[in-house]
Amino acid sequence: MPTCLVTGGAGFLGSHLCDELLRRGHRVICVDNLETGSLKNIEHIRVPEFAFLQLDIVEPFFVEEQVDFVYHLASPASPIDYLRLPLHTLKVGSYGTHHALGLAKKHRARFLTASTSEVYGDPKVHPQSEDYWGHVNPIGPRGVYDEAKRYAEALTMAYHNQQGVDTSMIRIFNTYGPRMRPFDGRAIPTFMRQALQDQPITVFGDGSQTRSFCYVDDLIRGMIALAESGRHEPCNIGNPDEFTLLELANAVIDVTGSKSEIIFELLPTDDPQQRRPDISRAKEWLDWTPQVSLREGLQKTLDGAGRDGLIGRAR
């Protein structure tokens, strides 16, 4: 039975990854400091093959039992979180990634770091392929997250080239589903929370900026396939179907049956105007494509989280 260590395992993506790894017959060690993750996301897991360790990976940590895979997902990921925790975000990308890679080296484990489409910044190339270097503002409000992830990629490749660690890098595009925090500041949980309360849905700018939205089950399937592939270069995992934020707002209103109106607010600094993955590598390397449409995924999110779970409480 392979053993997988998942940093950030009590977070949105991490908890879904733990579920799927256990379903596939793996043993899972979940590591989280609960700064942005929650025990509620893993409280349903009651099997002996699962262990939870509450610790902060910016400090060195050790695991005595043999580890076969290290999935490094730990990081504040929403604007609200990394603006609240800028230094910690940078430390997780640097010290945290260093410690996770060191553990993978010790155990000779396959290592996957969860990078992000934010490494492309406000892209001047559309759609974004992995060989595009991006257009990132390192001192803007999003810089602490963008540069933490870019540094984590550089560190991962350095460990691979110099230390021989078996590494992989996934660049995650917008992902959604049950267990997203209603007040994390991202578009889908914000729109759904507002719609379920018949409050005005707040769209930044004129709503013409585009995003592509990948349902969490598709994302996790691609992540595990990449971890098991033997590939070392970055790989985009996301849904190439592109929607404007205004189209997303209308889809949320329709799925929830809301009476909300749409209002417009000032566009945040450095907000990307276009975001869409080129998934040619994922198709070629992993035989992976997303299967869940936006409307189907929104309904699954509504059904899976429930009304109360999507309304939530402000932190």
From TrEMBL:
Q: Which Gene3D superfamilies match?
A: NAD(P)-binding Rossmann-like Domain (3.40.50.720)
InterPro entries (UniProt xref) = Epimerase_deHydtase (IPR001509), NAD(P)-bd_dom_sf (IPR036291), UXS-like (IPR044516)
Named cofactor requirement(s): NAD(+)
Q: Outline the extent of the NAD-dependent epimerase/dehydratase domain.
A: 5-238
One matching Pfam family, short form? Answer: Epimerase
Q: Which UniProt keywords apply?
A: Decarboxylase, Lyase, NAD
Protein name (record): SDR family oxidoreductase
Q: Which organism is it from?
A: Paraconexibacter antarcticus
Classification lineage:
Bacteria, Bacillati, Actinomycetota, Thermoleophilia, Solirubrobacterales
